[in-house]
Amino acid sequence: MDTYRAPDTLQIHPSILYFGTPVVLITTRNPDGSANITPMSSAWALADRVTIGLTGGGQGLANLLRERECVLNLASEAMQASVECLAPTSGADPVPRWKRNYRHVADKFALAGWHALPSLRVNAPRIGEAPLQLEARLLHAAKRPLEAWRGDAGGYYTLELEVCAVHAHADIVVPGSSHIDPRRYRPLFYVFRHYHGIGASLGRTFKAEV
Ligand SMILES: Cc1cc2nc3c(=O)[nH]c(=O)nc-3n(C[C@H](O)[C@H](O)[C@H](O)COP(=O)(O)O)c2cc1C
């Protein structure tokens, strides 16, 4: 006889639905040629495409829409403290009215203590400290209304990017291959506004390459 007892559930109304995605640091070029860093986590990948979501009013979004290219730098667990230093900042000057408790920072590389490296295919720099750096070009941008949350943010954008070059720290690559070794790659995750590491491995899929 089936003795399964379903866990108790509650219907809730959370203010956000950040159920856990990697922290991506988007580097873009400002109009004056300097670099901006936008921490974000609403991103998913399929083949060589990455789709991201950005709320309106940010400097990274404006740069991406204008230059149509960027680098998606995947943050590691070791980068958490610097990511949080960048969290209450914006490259936009003035900071959008609805971003209370944010301040403008022109040089986010200096604030985070990271190093900019030139890219191969795009003008935005890579972040040397990030274990994975994906150079990407913008294929498609769509503006969506977002009345239920921050109605004054100018909505949000979904942006579809095509990755055109992948750089990985050598120590996370299986020697002699193009495979990332998940035992060595330690991505930083954003889970309901808390940072988490990857934890222990629970196994692999039948399609795993290493
Ligand atoms: C860990 C983390 C994840 C974030 N995820 C997103 C996101 O997915 N989309 C978004 O629009 N903003 C996200 N933000 C907020 C932006 O970083 C914030 O709006 C910032 O001011 C943008 O900087 P910019 O104006 O220089 O581009 C996130 C911030 C942090 C710290």
Descriptive labels:
Pnp Oxidase, Chain A, three-stranded antiparallel sheet, 14 strands, 210 residues, mainly beta, seven-stranded antiparallel sheet, binds flavin mononucleotide, single chain, 34% strand, 10% helix
Give a short summary of the structure.
The chain has 210 residues and is mainly β. Helices cover 10% and strands 34% of the residues.
What is the count of β-strands?
14
- Let me know the largest β-sheet: 7 strands, antiparallel
User: What CATH first level would be assigned?
Assistant: Mainly Beta
CATH homologous superfamily title: Electron Transport, Fmn-binding Protein, Chain A
Across the major sheet, the strand order is: 3-2-6-11-12-5-4
How are the secondary structure elements laid out?
Blueprint: E1 21-22, E2 24-29, E3 35-40, E4 43-46, E5 49-55, H1 59-67, E6 69-74, H2 80-86, E7 89-90, E8 103-104, H3 108-112, E9 116-117, E10 126-127, E11 132-144, E12 156-168, E13 189-191, E14 194-196
Structure commentary:
The chain is mainly beta and 210 residues long. The chain has a single domain (21-196), classed as Pnp Oxidase, Chain A (Roll), CATH 2.30.110.10. 10% of the residues lie in helices and 34% in strands. The chain has 3 helices and 14 strands. It has helices at residues 59-67, 80-86, 108-112, and strands spanning 21-22, 24-29, 35-40, 43-46, 49-55, 69-74, 89-90, 103-104, 116-117, 126-127, 132-144, 156-168, 189-191, 194-196. A 7-stranded antiparallel β-sheet has the order 3-2-6-11-12-5-4, covered by helices on one side. Strands 1-13-14 form a 3-stranded antiparallel β-sheet, with no helix packed on it. It is globular. It starts with 20 loop residues before the first strand and ends in a 14-residue tail after the last strand. The structure holds flavin mononucleotide. Flavin mononucleotide (FMN) binds next to strand 3, strand 5 and helix 1. The site of flavin mononucleotide has 20 residues, from strand 3, strand 5 and helix 1.
